[in-house]
Design goal:
This protein is of the alpha/beta class. It has 16 helices and 36 strands.
Length: 687
């Protein structure tokens, strides 16, 4: 018997999935903020009991979380300091010295994670080629760190100029800090982000330092509690780039986990696209705190080496906190079931990014919440199958939901409680549609005509209205959609990516130097993968980041193998990648190479994204009730169907709800929902 456990800790709910030889048992529990591992263990107890297996039978645990993301968005990380090269401590705040919104005189930039008094300039300097210009002032480090610790600093980021070319000073700084203050965590830019571009390197390193104590404590607590339970097996972490890595690596580079939960969902959507032969898909993941949207073309999610956390200005690029890590490219906004709705001084309805989370949560949870949220609005509108919410473990209080919606939106705008709730959902749906359009336009793509794959606790409720706004006609809702990200963990490969900056012009290409560097990178990446799976066959993916001389940004150029490093072949690969993005090349222009990446992964299996779920095989009646639902103009009784009683080829017509243990799919009037052979619910919109 093969038993695997997948755990996704979100800002509101923690999802736990137990896979026993392809048959899944799932649960959702409220996230516990003081120690997130407590919620995990509650969920583990539930799925083990339901499946009837012992803890010792679990062979591997796969884990992803949005805790790092939430800590950055909510500014709830550690007290962090930055040691930078003397004269460069303010690079973190000066950023790129540009305006992401040209005509807004009141533009609001994200505040740096480290305040100026804790950004310290250290006497040292390397040139861009790694030659030492100023020796490291070790005595200054001793005195400075002592003062920072006295001020309460818990974590230190070290980001010296050109450390990607020579890391000697950063490594020595870490040794000094460890010798004098072993309890202080340290993040070195030469290890976290050894790439050209000082601001992005500093921003990434500081973000890593900011979340490192929180994530280290959380991962350590989870590991200990699993072992105490008798689950003594390997714990692998989902990374933002869509691969699994070891606990030790995740503890050292927690910034790589910043999108680990959503990455799992994108992998699930990509596998569905591959299995069904879909060329263009839009992945839609909406949970309790945030909504995530990802473009998937050719069954592969878009990948990037840069990402912005917490974009604060109408989803505009440049308005968030930049981090340079391997990441599945997606847009994330504060629009989840727990997002708080309010009316501002201009009588506009605003929804999010603030969230009620799980403590106290939406008012309808009955845990003391007093602010109107999207989930409260959904409850008022009759879009939740109350008996199925969280598998029936939570009884929702619709009276409390109606009261807070009326107080927050209805009375200020003189709307009925139903119209107030409808406007809340309309605002959040339009926010998500705007984010999807903006994200697609940044990549020169369109969302219209794609297939929408919806998962997460709240996505199936809002998928149909979002799809109509985006001119999407087909929606796929996979089985177990409410725990979709955790399902993606079960499909993810074990993978690790290493990046190095090594600038050279193509006309001066030094093949031997590049081969030596790539071999070092290959050894580093392979060692991480082998630590997780010692004997499995692995594959390697190589990319060069190239541009025409004088350009500000490079393009990713796939290289099939390190045997294809001849200048002519590199030029051909670059021109092919450049033409695919911009439709043309620039003849007789010098080409530059800035960085290289080597990704090593365990060879991928061909298993389709099909799982078996425990279903109700005794009862044939598919309709399990009805609910009074408001569609924006009138109320009507609509039927509720139990998804676990629907069989392949069954067809239901909207308006109706299709309920399952962790979510509810809203099928609007004019739409039809069909159960496909693999259990996916295919919704086709009409009207």
């Amino acid at each position: 018997m093969s038993a695997r456990l997948a755990v996704d800790i979100g800002g509101t709910f923690t999802d736990v999935v137990l896979d026993v030889d392809g048959t899944l048992t799932t649960t959702k529990v409220l996230t516990t903020y003081v120690d997130p591992a407590e919620a995990v263990m509650q969920g583990v107890d539930q799925v083990l009991s339901a499946a009837g297996i012992e803890p010792g039978e679990i062979s591997i645990v796969l884990h992803g979380t949005t805790l790092a993301t939430n800590a950055l968005i909510e500014r709830q990380g550690a007290k962090t300091a930055l040691l930078a090269t003397a004269g460069h401590r303010d690079a973190l705040e000066m950023a790129l010295e540009n305006r992401f919104e040209q005509y807004d005189v009141n533009i609001d930039r994200p505040a740096p994670l480290v305040a100026r008094p804790w950004r310290i300039g250290i006497e040292q300097r390397h040139a861009a080629d790694g030659v030492e210009l100023v020796a490291l002032n070790e005595a200054q480090i001793v005195d400075t760190v002592a003062e920072l610790v006295d001020d309460g600093v818990e974590s230190i980021a070290v980001g010296y100029l050109h450390s990607y070319a020579c890391d000697d000073h950063e490594l020595r700084t870490a040794e000094i800090i460890a010798a004098h203050h072993p309890g202080v965590t340290v993040s070195l830019s030469a290890l976290v982000c050894p790439e050209i571009r000082e601001y992005e390197r500093l921003s990434t390193t500081v973000a890593n330092a900011y979340v490192k104590p929180l994530m280290s404590a959380s991962l350590h607590s989870l590991s200990e509690q699993l072992q105490a339970k008798g689950i003594v097996c390997q714990l692998l972490m989902m990374t933002s780039g869509g691969g699994l890595t070891t606990l030790d690596v995740a503890g050292q580079f927690p910034i790589r986990l910043v999108e680990s939960g959503p990455a799992g969902g994108a992998i699930l959507a990509g596998r569905i696209a591959r299995d069904r032969g879909l060329a263009e898909v839009l992945s839609f993941d909406m949970g309790g705190t945030t909504a995530k949207i990802c473009l998937i073309d050719g069954a592969e999610p878009l990948h990037s080496r840069s990402f912005e956390v917490d974009r604060t200005y109408r989803f505009k690029k440049g308005s968030g906190l930049p981090v340079r890590i391997p990441v599945i490219e997606m847009v994330e906004i504060g629009a989840g079931g727990g997002s708080i709705a309010r009316v501002d001084s201009m009588r506009r309805i605003l929804v999010g990014p603030e969230s009620a989370g799980s403590e106290p949560g939406p008012a309808c949870y009955g845990r003391g919440g007093t602010q109107a949220t999207v989930t409260d609005a959904d409850a008022v509108l009759g879009q939740l199958a109350l008996d199925y919410f969280a598998a029936g473990k939570m009884q929702l209080d619709t009276t409390a939901a109606a009261a807070v919606v009326k107080d927050a939106v209805g009375e200020p705008l003189q709307l009925s409680v139903h119209h107030a709730a409808y406007t809340i959902t309309e605002v959040v749906d339009e926010n998500m549609a705007s984010a999807a359009r903006a994200h697609a336009s940044e990549w020169g793509k369109s969302v219209a005509g794609r297939t929408l794959v919806a998962f997460g606790g709240a996505a199936p409720l809002h998928a149909a209205r979002l799809a109509r706004k985006l001119k999407v006609e087909e929606i796929l809702i996979p089985p177990g959609a409410g725990v979709g990200s955790a399902l993606g963990f079960l499909l993810a490969p074990i993978k690790f990516e290493v990046v190095r900056s090594h600038y050279m012009r193509l006309s001066e290409f030094d093949e031997q130097a590049v081969l030596a560097m790539l071999q070092d990178m290959r050894v580093e990446a392979t060692s991480v993968v082998r630590a997780a799976v010692p004997d499995a066959p692995v594959t390697e993916h190589l990319q060069a980041y190239m541009r025409y001389q004088g350009q500000g940004y490079e393009v990713a150029v796939p290289i099939e193998s390190s045997q294809q490093l001849a200048v002519a072949e590199l030029r051909d690969h670059f021109e092919l990648a450049y033409r695919s993005l911009y439709g043309r090349t620039i003849p007789n222009m010098e080409i530059e190479i800035l960085s290289w990446t080597v990704a090593v992964r365990v060879a991928e299996t061909d298993h389709p994204a099909q799982f078996k779920f425990v279903t109700d095989t005794e009862t044939q009646e598919t309709q399990v009730g009805s609910v009074d639902s408001f569609d924006g103009s009138a109320s009507a009784q609509v039927p509720i169907y139990a998804r676990d009683r629907l069989r392949p080829n069954d067809l239901v017509n909207g308006p109706c709800l299709v309920a399952e243990d962790q979510t509810t799919s809203v099928i609007p009037a004019g739409a039809t929902a069909e159960v496909l052979a693999d259990g996916i619910l295919r919704v086709v919109l009409g009207g």
